[in-house]
Amino acid sequence: METPTASDVPSPEAAARHAAPQSVNTLIVGAGQAGLATSYWLSRAGVEHQLLERRETLGGAWQDRWDAFCLNTPNFSLALPGMPYDGPAPEAFMLRDDPISYFRHYAESIGAPVRTGADVTRIAPAVGGGFEVATTRGSWRARNVVLATGGYQKPKIPALSAQLPSPILQLHTHSYRNPGQLPVGAVLIVGTGQSGGQIAEELLAAGREIHLAVSTCPEAPRRYRGQDLLYWMMQLAQFGPGYGLNGLTVGQLPSPAARFACNPLVSGADGGHDIHLRNLGRRGVRLHGHLEAADDGDLVFSDDLPERLALVETAFYQRLKPMFDSYIAATGMSAPEPEPPRRDDWLPSEPARLNLEAANVTSVLWATGYRLDFSILDIPVLDEWNYPRHHRGVTEHPGLYAVGLPWLTGHGSSIVAGVGRDAEYIAQHISENQAQNIAAR
């Protein structure tokens, strides 16, 4: 009898893929904040479940952020079910590695049944009901599947990136780590959401010359009427509907596209502060309009920069401020009087066309956000935005759920402070269905 060689012996991963499917009542795909919150509530309901995490270590997407990344939400907002923040600095802002430790500790404290390094590759209906789930480490049969992969799945890079000269280093913020990663020369940052703003300040402090393509993400005060911006958003999201204030619920969005609108431009760095684009311009950042085209080493920007700056500066006062003021009045809370709007007439004078070589631009950072990716689903349940069709996270396909997506039920659905409410509802739905199935036998 021949002794098998090493090449004849299948790897553990290959052996797992060919093994008989494992069975579980509920599979949670993703062990970030949404998956862990769902696990907490399922455990309390006595529902058997398993979390599958594609990364080798816990900590969610926070592990993908750059070296000096700082949370833009205060520590008091780290409030997963059963473990509110109880540290000494509720108004401070954690650096990247601290929330990673927080989520790992949370998973351990709730006894979350997690398998890491298990990348789900396909979810399909099973014969007789439930789901067949294929992963890189074996297959599963489950009565229910909860999609908890979050809203930041695939970096979004504009198609015109292919038109930039090949010597230019192009990085999405997902791959950016620190200023030393970039070649000597000027940097173009495309996008002024929270990542674009924070990285612009970091590169400016490092002495880099920066060009900044301005998007329409709204500026906002870090603090308003004595509290952090997020405090009012959390209060309004959780208690506002009880006072008839529904502005941060999904039903008040003007269109489905608004689910993907960017968050207010604020920073948690250096203790937390506002970011004002005109201030960046005064400090030497070259401000441009929206990047519209690339033409043989020339970039063309929209010529509406004054209007664009005015739009981002007034959005808070037109939308969020009235909601906050109405909430304070409705609840009778004691708060300082509203601050007057910030006024600034400074304007940049950059042309609408930029020659990359003449400006010595050697790198481009795409701060253009992420897109949803549910390509693992072999189930026709997605709308034209690749967003699951659902009601409160219960999708149109029986047994399939979603949690942690932007504006699933409201503004707080994708942040740590709000994901627990959606997760609780989904866990309750699963538990009630399980009880009905048992009673029907």
Automatic annotation (TrEMBL):
SUPFAM superfamilies for the chain: FAD/NAD(P)-binding domain
Pfam families: Pyr_redox_3 (PF13738)
Entry-linked Gene3D superfamilies: FAD/NAD(P)-binding domain (3.50.50.60)
Alphabetical list of InterPro entries matching this protein: Auxin_biosynth/cation_transpt, FAD/NAD-bd_sf
Keyword line: Oxidoreductase
GO MF term set: flavin adenine dinucleotide binding; monooxygenase activity
PANTHER family: FLAVIN-BINDING MONOOXYGENASE-LIKE PROTEIN (AFU_ORTHOLOGUE AFUA_4G09220) (PTHR43539), FLAVIN-CONTAINING MONOOXYGENASE (PTHR43539:SF78)
Protein name from the UniProt record: Putative flavoprotein involved in K+ transport
